[in-house]
Amino acid sequence: MKWIMSTDIEHAARPISFTPGKIAITETMNIPRLYHQVAQDKPNQTAIERKSSINTWVPVTWRQFESEFRAVARGLIALGVQPGDHIAIMSHTRYEFALFDMAIWAIGAQGIPIYETDSMEQASWIIEDSHIRFAIAETQQMAEILAPALDKWDFFERIFVIEANAQGVIASMGRIEDEAEIDRRIESIKADDLATIIYTSGTTGRPKGARISHRNLLHVAINGPLDDGLNVIVKGDQRTLLFLPMAHVFARFINLMALYCGTVVGYSPDTKNLVADMQSFRPTYVLAVPRVFEKIYNAADAKAGSGVKLRTFRHYAKASIAYSRAMDTPEGPTALQKIAHEVGDRLVYQQIRHITGGRLKYAISGGAPLGERLGHFFRGVGITVIEGYGLTETSAPTCVNTPVRQRIGSVGPAYPGCRVSVDDDGELLAKGDHIFMGYNNNDEAMKAAFTPDGWFRTGDLGKIDDDGFVWVTGRKKELIVTAGGKNVAPAVLEDRLRGHPLISQVVVVGDKRPFIAALITLDTEMLPAWLKNHGLEPSSAFDATKDPQVLAAIDRAVKRANEAVSRAESIRKFTVLSIDFTVQNGYLTPSLKVKRNEVLRDFKDEIDKIYEG
User: Fold this and answer.
1) What domain range includes position 508?
2) Which residue has the higher pLDDT, 375 or 306?
3) pTM > 0.85: yes or no
């Protein structure tokens, strides 16, 4: 059945990107019922490969997975968990996260994720705002972050620790007689019932809890794999390794979609082991944020060293980009480009594919713009980066490129079953069954989030071209207006600069100032290799911020980035900070977005010095 949307009179004259979905989520559909059916249909099919204590991957069939999460579900019933109760999960991305998530859904309760990097104050706020009854913590250290709330809130009863066998402890409490109760509860869940509350990582203020329904998640998890352009990624003998936080809606959605369409899922909880995990698990597709792709490119550049090897890498990196760009022309790559690509494959591209396990064909990128240059580089190498766009409030995807309908640099046309439009001020608007139910205990924010005719305000600026491709140009709240009245979207410059091997983070400044400037931080992981490759002595990050050759390299990168904008929008001055922005020091969100307001507040003196005189 086709998914059909009504016409909106107020937006009829504006550009709209709309891709029909193939399945309408009916009132009786819910997450545990769908996955119970998958388990019944494919009991002996491998659903997940679980990493063992000796770093091998052990297959878990659907029969085993369902048996395990239903055992936990029986234990939760014995604990007195009722439909509608909220249970926090604070954990890295790992098998147990998926297991507890499914067990909680199976009894009509809701799993509320807490980022493993959240502070005691942030965790306490989520426990308070969503009225958490029980919590699952990965480690004792995480449990200690949650523990003060036990004394603070009477409704918060107990914490179980995964590494202290939370699965076994809870399952041992259950009674086999409650199997029928699980089925009864699953039958009673409706599509519009709450499935989870996901707290936005929040670049400003306290995070808001987005209330997401079973309909929201099922709409995107089911309609994506059914789309003719997307099923080549997820259908068949496919494998995906999840390493982004499952507390984020992006990874949670991919996990549900992968399990639904038969992709074998693996989990990599520690990004320090990511390369080893990719080489042993050998995924066919992964999801990542742009910073991951920047790191892979910069690491390959640094590994090339200097001299002939470095020149060879950079020559064939350019050849890869040129080859990919030519793929989008009617003529296609020239004979010379094809020859250069074949040679580059033998000398460079094979090595990059080997790093990712050798089978990786697609990577789904979201969270921030990837950048046209990197998109073409990886496609030329043989790894097509499928860039998409979405928010917590849209249950992850709202737009996505596909292998058969791709325009590198854009975030693609509307995701199946979704619709995107542009408001008069350039703000992207979204509509569809994937749009969240509202903010938890925050009616004021909910009212501000929608237009009078029911479109969700994304907060992002963008445009839709004649072919329905959506282009994101920046955040509405981050728009800089210089003293001369020029509107500047900082993302264009920031994204281009972050691709340089020396640069970690960039914050473009200049609101109500005479010109545009930037705060830049160094990538301390890449710094030693860069210094060595340029014949320079080892240096601390602090000393490097004053090194003339380091500053000259960054200055050249700034000049290249300025080529993408007008003179009025270009960076005139910059300062290199002696510290980086990280999740740990509070300047990055868990999804690696810069907390701009905190940076502008704490580095006000550095910004003022830029404009002195």
Assistant:
1) 479-610
2) 375
3) yes
